[in-house]
Each structure stands twice: as C-alpha cells, then as structure tokens.
C-alpha cells in the first residue's frame, strides 16, 4: 500500500496517500517531505494552521483532478485558499468557476450601489445637497421616524 500520511488542518485530521499529493508537485502539498517545516516529527503528521472548512474540497482536487465547490462558498475565501495551497484558479471546473465569477460580479455591484446610495450626514448648502432638499427626500423615504409624514408611508 502507498505511504498513507496524516494532515492536521486546524485541528481536523485528514488521511491521504503521498502519491495522491505528488500528482501536483508544483503545489504546497505536492512538495511535502518529512523535512518540511509543517511536519511534526513527534506526532508523525503535517500541521497547517488553516480552517478545515474548505480543505476537503482542496483534497478532492488532488484525488479527482478537479476542484468542485459548494454554491455557498465565499469567492474571496476560495481565492485565499487557492493562493495558500498554490492551486491554479484554472483547476476549478467551468461549472464552479462561473458561480465564483457571478458572486464576484454581485459583490462589485453591491459595493457600487452602496457607495452611490450613501448620503452625507452633514450637507454644505447648495453644492452638496441642493439646499437640503435631496437630504430631506432621502430621510423621508429611508427613515420612517424622521418626520410625521414619513411615518405614514
């Protein structure tokens, strides 16, 4: 049987074969040896102080040659994990890559909307708020307790 190794990822134990990891020698896991700084000699395992939440997907990449992701994964977290484990974004199949791209697009759209709808708390006359009319309208629509008429919409 192949050399079975133990990976401790943030306190969660994963077992795999060294040959599985060596399929991708250009990655962090593919370069592991017993002289790697992550190897804990007394315990005979490799320790990585990372969240184990996505690691099963990372390990599946080595086992199945592609990395499928859950739909509810944060695209920024995925990118950080790919960078840490030195796995290429192109190793994610198109079905999951399109989900990540959609989430990134949605996030950028949300950030643009948030910025464009922010109203300054202090208006500087005509130049910022058009004599305060824009602010009054915004308060009327968005803050129901700002006035008696606003309470009734």
From TrEMBL:
Pfam families recorded: BTB_2
Boundaries of every BTB domain copy: 3-103
Single GO biological process annotation from the record: protein homooligomerization
InterPro entries, sorted: BTB/POZ_dom, K_chnl_volt-dep_Kv3, SKP1/BTB/POZ_sf, T1-type_BTB, VG_K_chnl
The entry's keywords: Ion channel, Ion transport, Membrane, Transmembrane, Transmembrane helix, Transport
Any single Gene Ontology cellular-component annotation: voltage-gated potassium channel complex
Keyword Transmembrane helix (UniProt): yes
Localisation: Membrane
Membrane topology reported for the UniProt record: Multi-pass membrane protein
Top-rank taxon: Eukaryota
GO MF, any single term: voltage-gated potassium channel activity
Keyword Transmembrane helix found: yes
Broad class of the protein's primary localization: membrane
SUPFAM superfamilies tied to this protein: POZ domain
Name under which the protein is recorded: BTB domain-containing protein
Native species: Mytilus edulis (Blue mussel)
Lineage: Eukaryota, Metazoa, Spiralia, Lophotrochozoa, Mollusca
